[in-house]
């Protein structure tokens, strides 16, 4: 897909929101659109998805099937989740048994199974956002456009977004994501486009500079060994702390016998019972 | 695209907002037929005039019920042309249902009488003319309602203004002796024709007029949609 000298404004006499954007996104490629609020990220995404028509310039070679996840899902509709998704599957061109198959598989994967007969206006924001994700994926799109997909999602579904993206990429689809919260660190292979003052610049590939913070829960007895090993592998240890929330989060790997954290002092760097190690790639080449 | 038509009709019926125009239509029809019995062609001609603004309003409601973002999602799924066509078709189907109710209504309340004088039309001919008059109002009303929809005008205030102007204009400009009758759809002329002399050439002329007016107004709607993205 290619955006050729695309100019966009919302009113005839209004200011140009995008000015002469010229960019190409090939099959199997993912690009992250970065920028401050109101800078035109959503506008760029909507032009790519085919929702907005550019005032000047054009979009060529857009894949036939586009999945668009809007920033806010339009929940003000008189349908239940299952009815809405069934309707959208048919609108996307699915027929017969394939409709139910797609709806069932996506409601299951996104944790919407319990909400199938709930009406859209009654959903929480995050659950509605999942319906937004589901409708875009019902039929595997050749171009997936995600506008702030992590907004309002719970931890388990946030992890799922990169999975969906990988699926589209594996089928030679292209993916465009906007993000202003740094969640796209989960997409290390992504090209980075930053939008400012109406124009788009591609940031040079910077895998070395990108820094992610990974929190690791380790049984207290193994903290010292783990810290040493991670250091040896070139990671930077930011801090070691007693985990006050231990025992509750299901996403974390089990960390041995759980003890109340109140009897620990945060200053104890190692040897504490139930501790979190926060690591970062080695700072040497990073900064 | 059939799927989108069905989804939009379902959305329209499920919100319950379909009730308001239908109620307005029934009340005006009730008032109309409450005045006494009339022969079918004459009665249906007037009923079509009354129904025109109701059908346009119904179309506007049907199109406005769908949130803007959902309309864009539909556009992404089926393309711009088919998204617009599906909206017009859904409104057309809803309008035909209302027309069917309007055609049946006078029979339920005993508002229709058979031929009285020897020169009067038979009931089947009267029915056929009445059906024709109503079907002529459908495309024009759908076109006006679409032009007045939020997707076309952008704000609710303008939409109501377009709707009111179109509804009143169709009656005022359609009065005999009007300076610019062609600015409005020929619903008043149709009523005069069904009530009086209905030559084949006149019927054909009115049909062409109504369709041409609808095409121009739909063109305006599509142009507005294109300009607004």
Briefly say what this structure is:
The complex is a heterodimer of chains A (287) and B (229). Chain A is of the alpha/beta class and 287 residues long.
Distance between the termini of chain A: 35 Å
Q: In order across it, which strands form the biggest sheet of chain A?
A: 5-6-7-3-8-9
Portion of residues in beta strands of chain B equals under 5%
Radius of gyration of chain B: 18 Å
The two chains with the largest interface, and their residue counts, are:
A-B, 25 and 24 residues
Query: What name does the CATH topology of the largest domain in chain A carry?
Result: Rossmann fold
Q: Please name the CATH architecture of the largest domain in chain A.
A: 3-Layer(aba) Sandwich
Domains of chain A (count): 2
Q: How many domains of chain B?
A: 1
What do these coordinates show?
The complex is a heterodimer of chains A (287) and B (229). Chain A is an alpha/beta fold. Chain A folds into two domains: 2-203, Rossmann fold (3-Layer(aba) Sandwich), CATH 3.40.50.300; 214-281, no CATH class. Helices cover 25% and strands 24% of the residues of chain A. Chain A is built from six helices and twelve strands. In chain A, α2 (81-91) crosses α3. The longest helix of chain A has 16 residues, at 155-170. The radius of gyration of chain A is 22 Å and the shape is globular. The two termini of chain A are 35 Å apart. The relative contact order of chain A is 0.15. Residues 248-273 and 282-287 of chain A have low confidence and may be disordered. Chain B has 229 residues and is mainly α. Chain B has one domain. Helix content of chain B is 79%, strand content 0%. Chain B is built from ten helices and no strands. Chain B has helices spanning 2-15, 19-34, 40-65, 68-78, 80-109, 123-147, 150-153, 156-172, 187-195, 200-228. Chain B starts with a helix and ends with a helix. The model of chain B has no long low-confidence stretch (mean pLDDT 91). At the A-B interface, β5 and α2 of A face α1 and α4 of B. Chain B: It comes from Micromonospora arborensis. Chain B: Keywords: Membrane, Transmembrane, Transmembrane helix. Chain B: This is ABC transporter permease.
